C-alpha cells in the first residue's frame, strides 16, 4: 500500500531508507495519464530500517505525481546512474517536491542546484511502498 510523504515527513522517510545510500535502481518509468498528468515511478533495491528480513534489504517504489520536470543523463562510459552511492535528496520546493537521484554528493540547496543534477524530477506529491 502506498504511503504519502508530506514535506514535514521527508527527514524520517529518508532516515528509514538510510537516505538511499548504496541503492540500485531497477527501473524508471514515466506514465502519462488521460488528464495530462505524469507519474514517475522508480523501483529501487535498498535497505529499509523497518525490514527485518534479508538483512534489511528490500525493494521500494518511489512515486512522484504531477511531474513537471524530469532530467536523466546516464553516461555508459562513465559512472552509471544505476547505483546511487551518495543517496537520494528530497527538497521541499514550496508547492512541489524535488527529487535528486543523480549521484550528487551534497544536497542541492536551490532549484538551480537541483537542475544541475544528472537525474532529478519535480512533482507535486510523493508516495512510496515496499515490495516483498
From TrEMBL:
UniProt source species: Gimesia chilikensis
Record's protein name: Uncharacterized protein
The organism's taxonomic lineage, starting at the top: Bacteria, Pseudomonadati, Planctomycetota, Planctomycetia, Planctomycetales
